[in-house]
Fold:
Amino acid sequence: MKQKKGKTRAGPLARTNPGAGTGKRVRIAPSILSADFAHLAEEVRRVEEGGAALLHVDIMDGHFAPNLTIGPPVVEALRRVTSLPLDVHLMIEEPDRYIPVFVEAGAAMVSVHCEACPHLHRTLHLIRSLGTQAGAAVNPSTAVSLLEPVLDDTDFILLMSVNPGFGGQKFIPSTLDKAKALRKLLRARKRSIPIEMDGGLGEANVRDAVKAGVSIVVAGSSVFGAPDPAEAVRRLRAEAQRK
Ligand code: DX5
Ligand code: ZN
Structure:
């Protein structure tokens, strides 16, 4: 298959990770929400050392999610200290207003919540049009069947396994069945895109998530709350890839 050079839709992710988009290899995406914000560059260096594949960045607006976090300047600062693809998770209302500025700041992947997007198809295509991977995110109480109409318009799907808002919450086990249901939907459509799971994941349950079809594992407190975040990423990876 011929491929154009330069910035393609799959560009930023594919360059760093040849397995991108296949949904086969498990990638660990530490969430910097649980990092020490006073030493962000150092924290990033630690998870790079452990073999993190992506850096998950949680953006909350105090409306869609009951918390306020960070904005484009921090994404831009992260971009300068790492070559890891930045996986920007927008838990905000009216994300279309801010997508261009987050892409400009250096996002390689942008996910938006279907609960916050009345025109999800349009929003996903806006992200793609800017040369960035588009992700559709769903809350624990939202059925994955809602995503069926946009499966061809999304480059990955983010299943929340806690309610958006905070790091360190308890994993909601029913979300494993959603991952299985989504995997079935994707297979039926012959669509091979990664399923990302976010919230309450650690060494104890990462294997269950992978078995259910998850190939991007977001981990905040289990990585940055550990005494040695590099080692925590290594252990998560080993556990996730265990046969
Ligand atoms: C929650 C965020 C998550 C969170 C994950 O709203 O989207 O990315 O940082 O943190 P842990 O792994 O601690 O649940
Ligand atoms: Zn997140």
Notes: The beta strands are 27-30, 55-60, 86-91, 107-113, 133-138, 156-160, 195-198, 216-219. The two ends are 32 Å apart (CA to CA).
